[in-house]
Structure formats: C-alpha cells, structure tokens
Amino acid sequence: MRLVTAAEMREIDRRAMEEYGIPSIVLMENAGRWVAQVVASRLGRVAGKRVVVLCGRGNNGGDGLVAARHLWQQGAQVKVFLAAEPESLRGDALTNATIWRRLGQDFYPLLSPTGPQAFKLAIARADAVIDALYGTGFRGELPPEIRPVVEALNASGRFVVAVDIPSGLEADTGQVRGVAVVAHVTVTFGLPKLGLVLEPGVRYVGELLVADISLPLPLIAGNGPGRYYLTGEMVRSWLPSRPPTAHKGNFGHVLVVGGSRGMIGAACLTAAAAMRAGAGLVTLAVPRSWQEIAAAKLTEVMTLGLPETPEGQLSCAAWESLKPLLPRFTVCALGPGLGRHPETVELVKRMVAEIDLPLVLDADGINAFAGEAHLLKRRSSPLILTPHPGEMARLLGVKAAELADKRVEVAERAAREWEAVVVLKGARTVVAAPDGYTGINSTGNPGMATGGTGDVLTGVIAALWAQGLDPFRAAAAGVYLHGLAGDLAAEEKGEAGLVAGDLLEKLPLAWRHTAATEEAKEQHGLSCLG
Ligand SMILES: NC(=O)C1=CN([C@@H]2O[C@H](COP(=O)(O)OP(=O)(O)OC[C@H]3O[C@@H](n4cnc5c(N)ncnc54)[C@H](O)[C@@H]3O)[C@@H](O)[C@H]2O)[C@@H](O)CC1
Ligand SMILES: [K+]
C-alpha cells in the first residue's frame, strides 16, 4: 500500500475537491463517521457508554466533532473537550461545532484553569477516548499546556482511538518530540501517513486501520514510483512460482564471496540463506585455507578456495582466479566476513568496477568504499547495497546519529546518486531504488539485533534476484521474508535468545506464509475499512 507525507495527502484532498468536486465537508463527515463506527464496534452496545472526545482547533478536531455526533446519536454519553475557543474554529470544523451546539451539546474548555482536572475526572470513567487534537497539520512538539493532558490520557489505561494520527506524532518523520498520545487503534484516512509506519511513530499507533473517505480511486491507487508499505499481500505477488517441470537451473546460481580468519561463519550464513531462499545452486568462495571448514559446515553448498593473504583474508589475486568462472553464476553476493585487509579492500574495489554479474554488496564489501562512495558509480553491473546505519554513515562520511530521523530520504538520495538499490537496515528497513520506488518494511523485531542476521539477509536478496525478480523487488521481498522469519522465530523462542541460524530455519516457513493468500493478508500490519 502506498504511503504519503502530509503534503501529498493535502494535495490529494485538494484534487478530490477541485478536480472531482467532492466537498471537503463530505470527506470530514466520512472520516468522523468511520471513527465513530470503529469506537462503536469495539464498545459493543453504544447506548449509555461514556465517550470523551479531545478536539483541537483544526480539521482533525472537526473529524472528532463528527465522531462525537454519531456516537451521541447512537445513545452514548459524549463529552467534547475543546483545546481552543469555539469562536476560533474555521471552515468545516466550525460547521460541525455549530451542529453540535444546535443539538444542545456543550464544549468543555480544555485549556481553562479547571480544564485539565475536569478532563482527568471524565476519562477516569470513560469507556473510550477519541484523540482528535492534531492530525497531519502537526509539527514539532506538543504545547506545554497540552502535554499534561496527553500524559494523563496515556496513564489512564483507557481505550484510545486516534483520529488520522496520534497527536504529537509527526506525519512525515514518525518522530515524537517529548510526548504523544499512545493509541490502541489509529483510524487513518485515505492512505497511511509515512510517520505511522516508521520508528518510533509505529509504537504510538496501535492497530492501524485505513478508512476510505471517498477520495477518488485514481488519486489514491498506486503502482507507479512512490513509497510503499511492504505487506504480505504485496510481496506475495512478486514471489516466483515453481513449475512442475522445474529443475535447479531455473532458479539461478548464487556466488557468495566472503569470509576470512575469524569470520568464516558470516559467509556460511549468507550461502545457507541463499539456499533457504530458493536459489537453485549456491557456491561459496572463501580464502583457500578455510575452504575445508566451509565445506564441512554446509552440506548443500559448493565451495571454492581463493588466493589469500598470510593473515587469512582474500588477496587481490582472488579476482584473477574468479574471473574465468563467472559465466556460470547468476548473481554475486560480496562482503560478508571479508575483513578489511588493504589487499581485500583493493580486491573489492576491482570486483565492483569490473564484474559483469548483478552484485549484492554487504558488510566489509561496503566498508571498502568508506568515504569514497562516489567510486560505487564506476561499474557496469546492477548493484544492491545493504548497509546498516553505521556502514551507511561511514560511506557518507557522517555520524550515524545524523541519519536517524531521515532514514527514508537518506536511502532515496543514495539510491539516486549511486544508481543502485539501497537497503538501509534497522528497525523498519528502507529499500530505495534509483527509479523512485521505496519500500518500508513491516516485519522484524528487536530480537534480530544480533550478529549474523545481516549476512542472512544478503543471501536471501541474492537468491531472489537470481530467481528473476527485479533488483527492487528482490531487495524488498528479501527484507520482508527475512523479517517474517525473525518474527516466526521470536514467536517460538522469544527475542533475547534468537540467533541468525534461527532465521535460516524459519525462512521456508516465512515463504510459505507469504505465498498463501489468506495468511499474507493477515500479515498486513494494517487493515482497510470500506
Ligand atoms: N480535506 C481535508 O484536508 C481533510 C482533512 N481531514 C483532517 O484534517 C487533518 C488536518 O487538518 P489541519 O491541516 O487543519 O491540521 P490539524 O488539525 O492537524 O492541526 C491543527 C492546528 O495545529 C497547529 N499546530 C501544528 N503544530 C503545532 C504545535 N507543535 N503546537 C501547537 N499547534 C500546532 C496548526 O497550526 C493548526 O492550526 C487531518 O489529519 C485529518 O484528520 C479530514 O477531515 C479529511 C479531509
Ligand atoms: K489525532
């Protein structure tokens, strides 16, 4: 499903109104009505239930007023706390405030001296609270007079439904500066906002429901360049099928080049992951003295021994040995466990410049270009890069902390500049392609923050690429399946003791879940209303 920024959503709203003639009040009515419907469905019988609605001065508050009216009509006892003077409301929000008044209903002033205390008393007895303080118009941090109100709400343990976006969360970045509403359910309108699926925003959202508020389909349907939330349904349609007459030659031959003294396991994980992700054949090339060890560890994988330095890392001569063999491979994964010996760095640079195979570059393969990212452009083959934030920062010559709240933009810019698919790893991995497609992953858990999981990802992506997916889809499906394998492993074993090898075990199951239509729908991370 497509993801939008606040500005993109505003533009869609504007076009719905101007080009299609849908009045904004209709959009607001639909929005508020969906919120009321969600609250009603969670409360069971609405009559007699106590609902508190927190409304701000903007259109988000207007949506809250519509929801208040519908719940009142169904017999709920509704209290609206307004964080503004009623006279200061404008447009559709003012219209809905006027209707509320004409129904004989009051506003409770949230910002009067006694407002916060009255709000606390009201929520103590409430069956549900609707947060309609701020929506996509919000930037920065909550005003000091609103903070204690939100803190009281979060501490109350009440059932909270956020309107469009939890108040205090920035729609574009997912950043929370200080405090924000922690919702059980967020009903977002038209399309999910980027900040709802990024860290840390995703932790404030609860269950995410996307409501159809009558925005015209041509404005919200998306299959062109843009940002997408990588859901099971989306990835399912990309997975290659296996015809009954298939043979191993149909699913590509992945060459993994990596490993060094002390880090042979990394390359072995990549090779094993490529097998588990459906590659027809996998060959692992390691420094010569480690070939026997690798062969003993991996039953299904073929091995190659390459020239090495006295320290047990691949030497420049490895390239000459490898070159004549390249025509037999479909995709090369370079980097896991290589180490940073100057000769190995030189080898990586030459390989990236000269290889004529699709290339997945990871770990020390990426570090070989630290501060010299421009050299990545000097190549003739398609490239997928899989940096974690530290590696990305080294490539760009900046501090990792500087990238934290602009992960999407950083990955997108890098993809364009280096003409490569960039997989910026971390919670909510971002996959960006040079042609403007971006994916935000929906799977994965903190248990995966453990040595070797990145090596597994590289193998999965290489295998999918070798099976014929285009590089963006190979990378996007790879991060999705890899995260889902992590989720399945964590479900069984918990997060703390999860190791990279567990992901290998769960990869076939992750594939099976994703390929099954109904299960893929469940792995949405979001549901659609209407
Ligand atoms: N046609 C439309 O545009 C539609 C808009 N809808 C709703 O309208 C919302 C957007 O409405 P608005 O653009 O009026 O904005 P909001 O209602 O999100 O915000 C309102 C006010 O908050 C102020 N504000 C922003 N950051 C602040 C901060 N840090 N501290 C204090 N005040 C701050 C803004 O200046 C603005 O006056 C959406 O989230 C959605 O809920 C829906 O009704 C559907 C249709
Ligand atoms: K809100």
TrEMBL record:
Binding of AMP: at which residues? 425-429, 454
Note the Pfam families from the entry: Carb_kinase, YjeF_N
UniProt superkingdom: Bacteria
Q: Does the keyword ATP-binding apply?
A: yes
Check the record and name the PROSITE patterns matching this protein.
YJEF_C_2, YJEF_C_3, YJEF_N
Q: Which residues bind (6S)-NADPHX?
A: 59-63, 135-141, 164, 266, 337, 388, 455
Q: Which InterPro entries match?
A: Carbohydrate_kinase_pred_CS, CARKD, Nnr, Ribokinase-like, YjeF_N_dom, YjeF_N_dom_sf
Q: Where are the transmembrane segments?
A: none
Per its UniProt record, the required cofactor names are: K(+); Mg(2+)
The chain positions of domain YjeF N-terminal read 9-221
The reactions it catalyses are: (6R)-NADPHX = (6S)-NADPHX; (6S)-NADHX + ADP = AMP + phosphate + NADH + H(+); (6S)-NADPHX + ADP = AMP + phosphate + NADPH + H(+); (6R)-NADHX = (6S)-NADHX
Q: Which family does it belong to?
A: In the N-terminal section; belongs to the NnrE/AIBP family.
Function field: Catalyzes the dehydration of the S-form of NAD(P)HX at the expense of ADP, which is converted to AMP. Together with NAD(P)HX epimerase, which catalyzes the epimerization of the S- and R-forms, the enzyme allows the repair of both epimers of NAD(P)HX, a damaged form of NAD(P)H that is a result of enzymatic or heat-dependent hydration.
What NCBIfam families does the annotation carry?
Answer: yjeF_cterm, yjeF_nterm
What quaternary arrangement does the UniProt entry report? Homotetramer.
Please name the PANTHER family in this protein's record.
ATP-DEPENDENT (S)-NAD(P)H-HYDRATE DEHYDRATASE, ATP-DEPENDENT (S)-NAD(P)H-HYDRATE DEHYDRATASE FAMILY MEMBER
What is this protein called in UniProt?
Bifunctional NAD(P)H-hydrate repair enzyme
This chain's source organism reads Ammonifex thiophilus
